[in-house]
Amino acid sequence: ICLSLVKLLFYLAHSPLGSIVLLDFQPRQFVMVDGNLKVTDMDDASTEELSCKEDNDCTLDFPTKSFPLKCSVTGKCEGINEKKNLFNAYRYFFTYLLPHSAPPALRPPLSDILNATGDLRYGINETLKAFEKVLHLYKSGLYLQKRPLLLKDYISLKGFRTVEGEDYKCWPSYSHVGCLLSIHSAEEAAAICNSQSQCQSFIITQQRTWTGRPLAAFQSSWTDLIPDTNAVVYIKRSASSGERL
């Protein structure tokens, strides 16, 4: 959602009509269409930038913060439309969505984006570049470098999967009845399972997220197995010790 919003604001900042500001910037003005964020109401959009004679005429005011801007040689407050959109994106979207569901290794760069947009140290170009860098790390799995290899602690059973049903819950799960998380690889899934005291097994499903990452279902047992030619179930060696597989 945040990346899609930034792409939209990038377009508005560089539109053929000039820099466009959304004067009534509220979450209710946006809708998701085929995975992309769209603005539904352009009645309150404007290409007008505040006129000025000196820098003191160019203060961008919000309820909790104010930002001094420059008065350009053409007598316009420099970048005011772009900055107004970006700070509204920060206060209505970024603060609620960015900090909470990223893998731990990606939280520092997302925190940098949050702080930089909250202080308007980034413009829209820098913000989009920073988001795309995080997306590359996320999709490529580069954020997983220098981690201990944990998959060796698991037994893999090809041609089986565990019976679906209500199980322990985790955050941020794609399922409200269990623990279904996005992963880059089986190795990352093993690390997640190790970090959860309830987890005894996991299966990598055929479902994929918008970034192409598969979803893995983490479960507290592994004893209810059913045949599935397309599946592989991974079971903790410690959980399977003393049991017949």
Automatic annotation (TrEMBL):
An annotated GO cellular component of this protein is: extracellular region
Q: Which residues cross the membrane?
A: none
Output one GO BP term.
Answer: skeletal system development
Q: Which InterPro entries match?
A: FAM69_kinase_dom, PKDCC
Q: Which keywords does the record carry?
A: Kinase, Signal, Transferase
Task: Look up the signal peptide feature and give its range.
Answer: 1-18
Keyword Ribonucleoprotein set for record: no
Q: Which superkingdom, per the lineage?
A: Eukaryota
What residues does the FAM69 protein-kinase domain cover?
2-115
Signal found in the keyword field:
yes
**Which is an annotated Pfam family here?**
PIP49_C
Give an example GO molecular function.
Answer: non-membrane spanning protein tyrosine kinase activity
Q: Would you tell me the protein name for this molecule? A: PKDCC kinase
